[in-house]
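Escalated from tier 1: fe (ii) ion holo job.
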Amino acid sequence: MGMAHVALAAVLAMAAAAATASASPALGIQPLSKIAIHKATVHLDLHRSSAYVRATPALLGNQDEDTVWVTVKYGWDNPTPDDWIAVFSPADFISGTCPNPERYPAEPLLCTAPIKYQYANYSANYLKGGKGSIRLQLINQRADFSFALFTGGLENWNQRGSSENFEVQPKLVSVSKKAVFKNPKAPVFPRLAQGKTHDEMTVTWTSGYDVSEAYPFVEWGMAGAAGTRTPAGTLTFNRGSMCGEPARTVGWREPGFIHTAFMRNLWPNKEYFYKIGHELSDGTVVWAKPYTFRAPPTPGQNSLQRIIVFGDMGKAERDGSNEFANYQPGSLNTTDRLIEDLDNYDIVFHIGDMPYANGYLSQWDQFTAQVAPISAKKPYMVASGNHERDWPNTGGFFDVEDSGGECGVPAETMYYYPAENRANFWYKVDYGMFRFCVADSEHDWREGTPQYKFIEECLSTVDRKHQPWLIFTAHRVLGYSSNSWYADQGSFEEPEGRESLQKLWQKYRVDIAYFGHVHNYERTCPLYQSQCVNSEKSHYSGTMNGTIFVVAGGGGSHLSEYTTAIPKWSIFRDHDYGFTKLTAFNHSSLLFEYMKSSDGKVYDSFTIHRDYRDVLSCVHDSCFPTTLAS
Ligand SMILES: [Fe+2]
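Tier 2 regenerated the structure:
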């Protein structure tokens, strides 16, 4: 390893430190964090004679599309392998105004990270002829775009060793003219979520319209019937709501306005249509595309119910930018399988670690765009992960920097979920014969805390004769995992993960406890206090005696390694990208399946067949007192 690589490794290690905790996955660096944009220098005049960047078309979304492809042609007479093309939005990124001059004493000209980048020699023959052409995908993100050619690499690192004191850093040599969507403020990327009760569906979307400029609403109704209009609430947040860097500095980007409308008194299982819109002051309406959804079943309803659960999906760029294969290599596969399979499931639970924006706010728009084909049609229920929430000294349980300064604000605003207080990311969902208790592993869950109280309340208030299938979820592994970093510390769980909770899972007969955070798949036997309490492996019947623990963190982010010794309770492990599906056929029959994201096929499954009396009967530590009286 040469000095240059030592220096590069140091830069990468610093970036990694922002993305990981000591006990968390060590891989995975937000690609935008590799760019030392605040150290870039501007050389537009020097190279004006030969350097150029041109993007076509300049007017985007002519047919009101929210996602378009742009061709970028560029070149100059001094091409190097370190040259790169950056996309900036807003287009005017050389404003010279930095938010925290005291943080950057050299007063750099560039204070905003690009929204994506690609190496110039991604285009064949760039190094030979000095001319390149690439195609980039853009989404409507409320502002205009410009494309810039940089030389000198992404980072500020010493290419030739410290003795020569020669620093290579990004140098801007050319900028394109602006490209802009026909209506940059258009409402985009709707996301459904079940409300506080089963008969309430919420739709959340993003636009560039503040409520003073246009009135947000949803027009909706039963398929074939006339629609009604229901107003939406509007939220946003500002740079000051961010807790640290880069979210407060180079990663900041205006989030626009986030609107949520509530569609209430839904008839179970009925098909509804909806269309989001904004009424301008002159009475005209800016509409988004129409969509349909199926209303959730009533709690206890006996009908086919299918639920997708996974975590840690992340995002990637379909144009290959941001070195996408290095960050969340499986995310587009998972997304595409779920889009293809839309007719075969009813609701989605993404249990934390969503875009891994890590303080680069533009990435939240990119993520909502990526999952919009799913979330516009199925309730997309989210949980909080370390990459959404964690930041030191901000009230979370983990004093680490995994959110890149976001401290939960974008996640808690961009998505709706039926929590009492959305700063506390815990809530329950009744979906037909299921109850989900969604916990927040980034806040203290131990006995005596408000979250523990919520968990016990959620688990204890479900009537199992009508809702037999009781599911617990959290992002970090509060149950069991034979992932290597947990095994190395001898815990096989997040430290203090199950110590308080396992007696609740046992007492209230939780069927399955789901976790992410560990980026692989693993399923245990029915388990209590580290002991298998049932010798069956795939066709369970009668009393379960314990809870089955599932890690479903292979949604797309780089994979995590297992420990070599396989614990007795570990029944199936798969070191690959995948997601899981629960199918309740009726009150006594449940199917669990694990699918790989690469082909959508089932690689592990089990069934549970049992009756109400099997849930009621006595199991270890959960026997109810009886009297001898007759
Ligand atoms: Fe995580």
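The pocket of fe (ii) ion is lined by residues 312, 353, 385-387, 475, 517 (CB under 6 Å).
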